[in-house]
């Protein structure tokens, strides 16, 4: 009985190894994970309205930037003068896109940040990919379903973009 059970376990392991070695399976698993993460973020936005701290100020700064005025005059406090310029330029670019497309600025910002989250997860997958699919896939899944990352992107924080550039630098 013990040998029959061990043969069945061995055959199941061989079958799973065969499936994992198939590139189509890997592509399918990664795609399902990324699409699920994107849908999950959309559901969070739908049922838990975001409370972005910096977004109203960045929205006003984007309007002023497009108009050619002093961006930092909008903020009124010195706390925002230390913001990285990436925040202001991205906010201005997303504001232009939102006016061209006719979609609210916050919605475009969320879609952009959701895509950056998923791209960062894919770069993490590439960094961790050393031939063992499950380790790399676990890294991707932990990143895209991380509640801290989810909170950051649903509250319109641009830090994930800077992290993506850092991860791209280290992915070589």
In words, what does this structure look like?
The protein has 172 residues and is an all-alpha fold. The chain has one domain. It is built from 9 helices and no strands. The protein has helices at residues 2-21, 23-47, 55-67, 72-75, 85-101, 105-128, 133-144, 147-154, 159-171. Helix 3 crosses helix 5 (85-101), helix 6 (105-128) packs antiparallel against helix 7 and helix 6 packs parallel to helix 9. It is elongated. The mean pLDDT is 81.
Brief characterization of the structure:
The chain is mostly helical and 172 residues long. It has helices spanning 2-21, 23-47, 55-67, 72-75, 85-101, 105-128, 133-144, 147-154, 159-171. Helix 5 crosses helix 6.
Which H/E pattern describes the elements? HHHHHHHHH
Low-confidence stretches: none
- Domain count, please report it: 1
Question: Beta-strand level of the residues, as a percent range?
Answer: under 5%
**Number of helix segments?**
9
Largest sheet: none
Shape: elongated
- Tell me the helix content: over 70%
What structural class should be given to the helix and strand makeup? Answer: mainly alpha
Gyration radius (Cα, Å) is 21 Å
Could you report the average pLDDT, rounded to the nearest whole number?
Answer: 81
How many β strands by DSSP?
A: 0
Q: How far is the N terminus from the C terminus?
A: 51 Å
